[in-house]
Amino acid sequence: MLRSTGTWRREGRMRKKSVLEEAAEVVNGKRKEDYGEPVECLTRIGEMWGLVMGLEEPIQAEVVAMMMVGLKLVREANRHGRDNLVDMAGYVEIADVAWGRE
Fold first, then answer.
1. Packing angle between helix 82-99 and helix 19-28, nearest 10 degrees?
2. pLDDT tens per residue across span 81-95
3. 25, 69, 74, 96: which has the highest count of C-beta atoms within 10 A?
């Protein structure tokens, strides 16, 4: 049973949600409401980044997702933060969905 604190009760013990569970909730929940479909959002980011960088073609959504994983890795290398792990898992999930479009 999910508790409002983000923990699960199993056999009388409390367990935090896994990074993957939390990432799935983030990708398919509030951020989706705020920014729209994740692949479409990263597609728009790739278009903007391509323009800013003077590229002839936009950066593909799956590449943007992996670039964001890289950003989170750099932050994690500086200081551990669970949100870095959650965000990395979310970006990997979005990349997988984007690659599945082909």
1. 60
2. 999 999 999 999 999
3. 69
Q: Which two tokens stand for residue 41?
A: 């959002």
- Read off the pLDDT band of 7 (50, 70, 90): low
Domain boundaries defined on the chain: 18-99
User: From the DSSP assignment, how many helices (H) and strands (E) are in the chain?
Assistant: 5, 2
SS3 state of residue 16: strand
Q: What is the CA radius of gyration of the chain?
A: 16
Across-strand partners of 2? 8
For the stretch 34-68, pLDDT in tens is 999 999 999 999 999 999 999 999 999 999 999 99
Q: What is the pTM of this model?
A: 0.81
Rounding to the nearest 10 degrees, give the CA dihedral for residues 83, 88, 92, 97. Answer: 40
Query: CB of 23 within 8 A of CB of 84?
Result: no
SS3 59: coil
The one-letter amino acid code at 48 reads: M
